[in-house]
Specification:
GO terms for molecular function: metal ion binding. The protein folds into 3 domains: about 80 residues, no CATH class; about 200 residues, Metalloenzyme, LuxS/M16 peptidase-like (Cytochrome Bc1 Complex, Chain A, domain 1), CATH 3.30.830.10; about 200 residues, Cytochrome Bc1 Complex, Chain A, domain 1 (2-Layer Sandwich). About 45% of the residues lie in helices and about 15% in strands. A hairpin with a 5-residue loop joins strand 1 and strand 2. The radius of gyration is 36 Å and the shape is globular. It starts with a helix and ends with a strand.
Length: about 550
């Protein structure tokens, strides 16, 4: 709001209309006669005209009021109108757009260098029970967030009870603690606009909490109760099991998810800890005692990492953490690492270079997944393959540009080394949705064979490197994201300076490096193909590819 306009009186105070007196028979008639015979002094006319015109420039009154100088109900004489019009014409006009642009200073071309990226300064300590704690202050908002990671996860679920880790984490949260059972915990958190959540990934169980800074002591205490003294009520277990069973009933409802899931099972093995799915029978057989045994085995302080980020003083938070987790006792035995198969990858001879067809009768859309074993994190080929990944994807990427835009063979398509686990090979995988699967597979193979036989142009490599480096910045987007990375690296043993080594590795990639890595890691003729669609209509065109075709039953 412009101060000059705000200080002006209103148009009503400038024209000063007569106020109607309290009504009576005499005053009403007198007011009517006075209104009809009123003649304004000339100085008031001029003041009104000038003031109203000035207000019109600022868009406060209508142009009619600005020209007339008074309310339209009080018409001035023609001579006065001419004088007022001349006064308005003499007012300064706004400059044109070209004049405004010409007066602007030139755009800057030189900028100071950005500050170097660095790990945030955090406090690290280890409690007497072995719990490793990372504290990172962030006073931008009055909020505190905490995350606890514990080794275990889905891989620690027994082979006959797949899904035990997820159920344990879910019931641990929904059931609350011994002191604050489920509903009491929910009420206490709701009163403080706070939250506590839990879940299980492939390698770890995670529990997290968030609250206002002023409520951190109380919420941290509630969080510690849930971790160290979970109630695990039977009704919450029954509810969680019913939800998982319902999800299993509908796991094949979305055809676009089927090929990627089945491809992982073919490459790793259907019963591998890296690809297995629970069965309804396994979920139904999980008991409360199973949950207790799992949490006792895997949730232990000497195999856990706690990270807290937010608006707090580190010395005070250290005292709160020690008080909250002092009762969490370390078992006498040593932590057990999550189980891994003796050979992460089985023999690929039965699946390499083969096409597996999942029959979805009546389906009008075909979904495809093509893949082969990939690499692990910290592999030297990680840097050039990440650059190649960026060359494949995006609107300017080879897959999108050639297969989708130029040839029109796919509704959507992407491909690359989507995961690089720390302790086993990931996968190279390309997925697409198409109405012409045979033509798409041929075009896709052409793109991959070119990548494995011809060095990419320097310009394309530089563009992909820049895209990878631009994504790197988001690793430092927030303090909480940085702390999550810090505790994750600490849990699985990744050096904390890995992110900086990654940036340096990307910067050094050259076209020859991309070609060499692609030759080592891309084998289009030996890749496994999974196609999900109507088998009757698909078989004739898929035979033109010359690949062995095998039916694949979903289970």
């Amino acid at each position: 709001m412009a101060p000059a306009v705000a200080s002006l009186p209103s148009s009503q105070s400038l024209t000063r209309p007569l106020k109607r007196p309290r009504q009576s028979a005499t005053t009403s008639r007198h007011y009517a006669r006075l209104q009809c015979s009123c003649q304004w002094p000339d100085w008031r006319q001029k003041a009104a005209a000038a003031g109203a015109a000035l207000l019109a420039v600022h868009g406060i009154v209508s142009p009619l009021e600005a020209v007339a100088g008074i309310s339209p109900s009080l018409n001035p004489a023609p001579l006065q109108q001419q004088q007022q019009y001349q006064q308005v014409q003499q007012l300064p006009t706004a400059p044109s757009l070209a004049e405004v642009v010409a007066r602007l200073p030139p755009l800057p071309t030189d900028f100071p260098p950005l500050p170097p990226l660095a790990l945030p300064k955090y406090q690290q300590l280890t409690l007497k029970n072995g719990l490793r704690v990372f504290l990172l202050e962030d006073h931008e908002l009055p909020v505190v967030r905490g995350s606890l990671l514990m080794r275990g996860g889905q891989r620690a679920s027994p082979a006959d009870k797949v899904g035990l880790a997820s159920l344990s984490a879910a019931v641990q949260r929904s059931g609350g603690s011994v002191q604050h059972p489920g509903q009491a915990l929910d009420d206490a958190l709701e009163d403080r606009a706070a939250s506590i959540e839990g879940g299980a990934g492939g390698e770890a169980i995670g529990m997290g909490w968030q609250c206002l800074a002023e409520d951190a002591p109380e919420v941290l205490s509630l969080f510690a109760e849930v971790v160290t003294q979970p109630a695990l009520p039977q009704d919450k277990l029954d509810l969680a099991k019913s939800q998982v069973l319902n999800a299993l009933e509908h796991r094949f409802d979305n055809p676009s998810n089927i090929p990627a899931r089945e491809l992982a099972k073919l490459i790793y093995g259907r019963d591998s800890v890296f690809a297995r799915d629970p069965t309804p029978q396994q979920i139904a057989g999980i008991t409360r005692q199973d949950l207790q045994g799992f949490l006792t085995t895997w949730e232990r302080p000497d195999a856990a990492v706690l990270g807290i980020c937010g608006d707090f003083d580190s010395l005070q938070m250290k005292v709160l953490v020690e008080a909250a987790f002092e009762g969490w006792q370390r078992p006498a035995d040593q932590p057990t690492p999550p189980p891994l198969p003796s050979s992460p990858l089985p023999d690929q001879s039965g699946v390499a270079g083969r096409l597996f067809l999942v029959d979805l009768p009546g389906s009008t859309q075909t979904t495809i997944a093509v893949g082969e074993p990939g690499i692990q994190m910290l592999d030297p080929d990680e840097y050039p393959l990440d650059v190649l990944d960026d060359m494949f994807n995006g609107f300017a990427g080879r897959l999108f540009n050639r297969v989708r835009s130029r040839e029109g063979l796919a509704y959507s398509i992407s491909g690359g080394w989507s995961s690089t686990p720390i302790d086993h090979p990931g996968l190279f995988m390309a997925t697409a949705e198409t109405a012409k699967p045979a033509a798409l597979l041929a075009a896709l193979r052409g793109v991959l064979e070119e990548a494995a036989s011809t060095a990419p142009p320097e310009e394309e490599v530089q563009r992909a490197k820049q895209a990878a480096l631009n994504q790197f910045v988001f690793s430092f987007a927030s303090r909480s994201a940085q702390l999550s990375r810090i505790i994750s690296f600490d849990l699985v043993g990744i050096p904390q300076d890995y992110v900086f080594k990654y940036r340096g590795g990307i910067e050094q990639v050259q076209p020859g490096d991309v070609l060499a890595a692609a030759q080592r890691r891309l084998h289009p003729a030996q890749q496994t193909v999974v196609v999900a669609g109507d088998a009757v209509s698909l078989r004739p065109q898929l035979r033109t590819l010359g690949l062995p075709i095998q039916s694949l039953e979903l289970r």
